[in-house]
Amino acid sequence: MKEYINEDFLLQGEAARRLYHEYSEGFPIIDYHCHLSPEAIAADRQFEDLGQLWLEGDHYKWRAMRSNGIDERFITGKDTSFREKYDRWAETVPMTMRNPLYAWTHLELKRVFGVGRLLNPATAAEIWEECTALLQQPEYSARGLMKKFNVEVICTTDDPIDSLEHHKALKNEGFEINVLPAWRPDRAMSPENPAKFIEYIGKLEEASGTEIKGFASLIEALRNRHQYFADAGCLLSDHGIEQFHADDYTEKEVGAILQKVLAGTMLSPEEISKFKSAMLYELAVMDAGRGWVQQFHYGAMRNNNSRMFAQLGPDTGYDSIGDFTVAKTL
């Protein structure tokens, strides 16, 4: 029986097979947006087992497991082993057929570990043993896996207040794969929660060496960090926004809005939109001035489960597809 993942996976027709195998198959990976950990790369992290590799932070898998009725303790529980979590993932995988997770899981098993069997409860134990044994080998470390896939460049996802110490360490070491930062200023333009925003502004002041008294000094602080990122090799920005904002505003209005939120006052939806409009414009000016590429990840409705957001924080599997007007504001 033909394996699900084979050398012609997704290649329907001779033209597709020829284009891939004769031209693009050997190309290096140049990834301009990823969520790989620069700390893990710098430390050349060796994952302990397949469960840790797959389930430590992948909220796409977490979401699927919840949809399959898996108890939360087997998803994000601190007192549950990765083997127990992996076994619940193995129960879930057959239910994800026709979802990208099904293809991704089996592509990883085949392309990384050489395992062509389908993952399900009957095969879970033997696949665990095979893959976990391979993960103990040096070529399966964080850097080893990148080399295995012929990675040439990656751009990580970094906040303006990040030190970028791991990017610098990798560059100074002469690591052959180019690990570049990408500017992700989402928290600098998210005043919905005054307490969290004020806390962030304090960290931005410390990182930039700039006292933020108003809108002009906020932009100055961000410009300082923008320069810092440029010096570290950054060439692009990345914005995770629910929707685009292009309201008319004046500097006086935006300054008053900033003072209001810095005083701990909740903003109205109209005030939030004006502030975000101003920030998007100013950040676009910064990027254009340096010739950076500007990426937008828009349209996701974030943090829909307030109870679990309070318990686990953002990016834990509780976002959904939004339904926002895009063309007019663009």
Q: What this model shows, in words?
A:
47% of the residues lie in helices and 8% in strands. The protein has 2 domains: 95 residues, uronate isomerase, domain 2, chain A (Orthogonal Bundle), CATH 1.10.2020.10; 139 residues, TIM Barrel (Alpha-Beta Barrel). The model has no long low-confidence stretch (mean pLDDT 96). The relative contact order is 0.10. With 330 residues, it is mostly helical. It starts with 13 loop residues before the first helix and ends in a 9-residue tail after the last strand.
What is the makeup of the main sheet? Answer: 3 strands, parallel
Cross-sheet strand order for the largest sheet:
1-2-3
Put simply, the count of helices is 14
Order of helices and strands: HEHHHHHHHEHEHHEHHEEHE
Gross geometry: globular
Layout: helices, strands, pairs:
Layout: H1 14-24, E1 29-31, H2 38-42, H3 50-55, H4 59-67, H5 82-92, H6 100-113, H7 124-134, H8 142-148, E2 151-155, H9 165-173, E3 178-180, H10 194-208, H11 215-231, E4 236-241, H12 251-262, H13 269-290, E5 293-298, E6 300-301, H14 306-312, E7 320-321
What labels describe this entry?
2 domains, 3-stranded parallel β-sheet, uronate isomerase, domain 2, chain A, 330 residues, 47% helix, two-stranded parallel sheet, 8% strand, TIM Barrel, mainly alpha
Could you provide a short overview of the structure?
With 330 residues, the protein is mostly helical.
